[in-house]
Each structure stands twice: as C-alpha cells, then as structure tokens.
Amino acid sequence: MEETSHALFSIGPLEVTGTVTTMWAIILILTLLSWLATRNMKDTPGKLQNAAEMAVGYLQNYFKGTLGEKLSRKYFPVFATFFIFIIVSNYSGLLPGAGHIKGFSVPTASLSVTAALALIAFFVTHVIGVKERGFGKYLWGIFTSMTIPLFFLAIIEQFIRPLSLALRLYGNLYGEESVTEYLYRLFPIGLPLVMNILSLLFCFIQALVFTMLISIYTVEGIGEEE
After folding, report:
1. Which of 28, 74, 125, 213 is most exposed by smallest CB count within 10 Å?
2. Count of domains observed in the chain
3. pLDDT in tens, 136-164
4. Nearest-CA neighbor of 88 among 177, 207, 186?
5. In a domain, 103, yes or no
6. pLDDT value, residue 97
7. Residues 31, 32, 35, 41, CA torsion sign
8. Which pLDDT score is estimated for 100?
9. Which has the closest alpha carbon to 224: 154, 128, 127?
10. Cα Rg of the chain (Å, integer)
11. 212 is in which domain, residue-wise?
12. Which residues pair with 16 in a beta bridge?
C-alpha cells in the first residue's frame, strides 16, 4: 500500500515525492521501449517490434469500437497514451517493494495523480468536441432540447465527471493495495500469490474502464455515431 507522500527532495519550490519519481521512471521506460521498438522497423519484425505492433493493433480495434473509425484514427495516440500509462502504473504495484521502498510508489494509488489524469481527460474530451464541431455547435449539442433544470444538471454533470473518474481509479487501486497488504499479513503464504494473479486482471480492467468512459464522453459530446 502506498505510504504518505513525503518529499524525497526539492527542485526549487517543487517537492518531489516517491509518486513523482515512479512516474518519471515509467515515462522513461515507456519512451525507451517505444524508441527501441520503432527505431529500425522491418517487414519481418523482431520480438519487440512484433509485441509493439500487436499491442497497437489490439488498442486500435478497441478504440474503433468505442470511438468509431474516424475519431479513433485521428485521436488514437491520445487515448492509447492514457491506457498505456494507467495500466503500467497499475501493474507497478505488483512489483516487489512497491509502496515500501523509498522513492517507489504506485502513481494511480495517489489521488493527486488520478485527479490530474481526470482533469487532463476532461479538457481532452471538450477540446476534441470543439475541434470536431466548432465551439458554438459543440455547446449546442450538449445543452440542446433541455428544460432549465436539466440545463443546470448538465452543467453540473460535466464537472462531476472528472471527479468521478479520479475517485473511481484512486479508490479501486488504493483499496486493492490495502486489501492485498492486509491479507498478506494474515496469510503470508499462498493467498498473496492468488491476490497478485487476480490483480493482473483487476489492474487491466481499471485502465480499460477509465479509457472507455472518456471515449464515451467524447462521442457523446460530439453526438456522432459511426
């Protein structure tokens, strides 16, 4: 389970915590893997290129199902980045020492991280909507054909969405880590292994749900069915 976010060091007024250093490590590793997989593309791919192409292919098919062909083709890198970062962050909690080694904390078990992801997702969905339909048409598509009470409820809903996204991801990951650690203390042999196996599926589902919801919000705001 994640420990309290004590600062490891400071860069001027900015305090750097274990959550931040773990995110830096994840970003660095993903960047390195992406570079290695694409630096020398071949018609007969090696293992790393083949794994990358399979992952991209699966994600493209998934987002085509939620965003449609047109939006998926245009905005795939944005939504895929959300999914990849979240799932790798989730899986980092399965590594030995996560939450216990100084400087190694699970990013998605921190409310500040999930809130930041939700806030970015909030702006991404609306920026895509405005880009696709224009500012006036986009707002009209959100609030059209509503009575005054529903109009205000629609406004409130737009601001509740990022809060819901942040709390859902944080609560599920933090709760899963807490339960796993508690069970490990009670049954140190056997059960933790079972929990870690279940966590593989659980962490995948959480990343899938987050990206599925922001995909739905995007399509819903644009009002297109492809």
Report:
1. 28
2. 1
3. 877 776 666 555 667 777 778 888 999 99
4. 207
5. yes
6. 65
7. negative
8. 63
9. 128
10. 20
11. 7-222
12. 9
